TrEMBL record:
It catalyses: L-cysteine + L-glutamate + ATP = gamma-L-glutamyl-L-cysteine + ADP + phosphate + H(+). This is Putative glutamate--cysteine ligase 2. GO terms for biological process: modified amino acid biosynthetic process. It comes from Streptomyces agglomeratus. Keywords: ATP-binding, Ligase, Nucleotide-binding. Coiled coil: none annotated.
Length: 363
């Protein structure tokens, strides 16, 4: 059974006004004072209005769900200690002036990328799935490429930007796409070619190091995993678990195809970028680009095609029923973008949207 770990980035906000607060240093100090293993769970991010946590690797999705809920609750508790709250939104609905964190790395990013760095107050969800080798990992990367846009549509949770409706379900994905190393990639064919590409990109001097390889999915440079980085942080922790479940099944399905000698789909990067744009624009409303045909199809049909694609792996891991239930709930309730817009239509104010989402973050 492949292990799965999740990293979630959360916004720090004022509990009453919903405005982002640059308090990550204070929150991490509160974590440190308590000691224990939480110092290895929470860490700062590019902007001080953000807090990240990482789960331990799990083979049981039930255990993963418990960890996600636990660390969200702990993040909320530590934020309360310094007069703030955490919220699982991929962008701030309210206007904000992001504060870049201290440290040489963040200063370098600000100097090199200017406004792109300043405006990267966005929160994602990264899913790590164990692989047996770099060869297997790259074979997986080559074969999951067409399906990543579907995960983006499912997780989309960033319709608002600087106090306005962006017109997108995941505006985070558009902001994140400003990094020169982000987005979908070509087929590598082998681990050697993957590593050569990474080394050549770093060698240009435009990237500081391998940590700036921001592909939608990559080999982790810290762990023996494939790291899928395409998703928004999800408002509902149940959606996070669903995305993680499907990512593990995608990895296992792709590894089986590789071992069976099945080649990856040859879709070009241009088509994959269009599919990602459509997913970020539409979310689960309207149409997506089908990963097999690369033609428009209803979003629900595309999501169900993803489920069918990985059904055998879900069956073998015992996740098929929870995944079916999670998909049904998501298609009924909608992703975070739909929920946020519905909250705005009922309350009339973005502050109310944020404060309600603070409550929902804990699930």
């Amino acid at each position: 059974m492949r292990s799965v770990g999740v990293e979630e980035e959360l916004l720090l906000v004022d509990a009453l006004t919903g405005e982002p607060q640059a308090l990550s240093t204070a929150v991490l100090a509160a974590v440190s004072r308590e000691g224990g293993d939480e110092g290895e769970v929470f860490e700062a991010e590019l902007h001080r209005q953000m807090l990240e946590f990482a789960t331990r690797p799990q083979t049981s999705m039930g255990d993963l769900a418990e960890e996600i809920r636990r660390w969200r609750a702990e993040a909320a508790r530590h934020a309360e200690d310094v007069g703030a709250a955490v919220v699982a939104l991929a962008t701030s609905p309210l206007p904000v002036s992001p504060v870049i964190g201290s440290g040489e790395r963040y200063r370098w990013l600000e100097e090199q990328f200017g406004l792109t760095t300043q405006e990267q107050l966005t929160c994602g969800c990264h899913v790590h799935v164990s692989v047996d080798s770099d060869d297997e990992g790259v074979a997986v990367l080559d074969r999951i490429r067409p399906w990543l846009s579907v995960l983006l549509a499912m997780s989309a949770n960033s319709p608002f930007w600087q106090g306005k409706d962006s017109g997108y379900s995941s505006y985070r994905s558009r902001v994140w796409g400003r990094w020169p190393s982000s987005g979908p990639v070509e087929i590598f064919g082998s681990a050697d070619r993957y590593h050569q590409q990474v080394n050549d990109m770093v060698g240009t001097g435009a990237l500081r190091d391998k940590g700036m390889i921001y592909f939608d999915a990559r080999l982790s440079h810290n762990y023996p995993t494939v790291e899928v980085r395409v998703a928004d942080v999800c408002l509902d922790p149940g959606t996070t678990v669903l995305v993680a479940t499907l990512v593990r099944a995608l990895v296992e399905t792709a590894a089986r195809q590789w071992r069976a000698g099945e080649p990856p789909a040859r879709h070009g990067v241009g088509l994959l970028r269009l599919a990602a744009w459509r997913a970020g624009r539409s979310g689960l409303e309207g149409e997506l680009i089908h990963p097999v045909t690369m033609r428009p199809a209803p979003a629900e049909a595309v999501v169900r095609a993803l489920f069918d694609h990985v059904r055998d792996a879900l069956e073998d891991s015992g996740d098929v029923v929870p995944a079916q239930e999670g998909l049904a709930a998501l298609l009924k309730t909608g992703n975070g973008a739909r929920v946020q817009r519905e909250l705005l239509s009922r309350s009339g104010g973005l502050r109310d949207v944020v404060t309600e989402c603070v409550s929902r973050t804990r699930g």
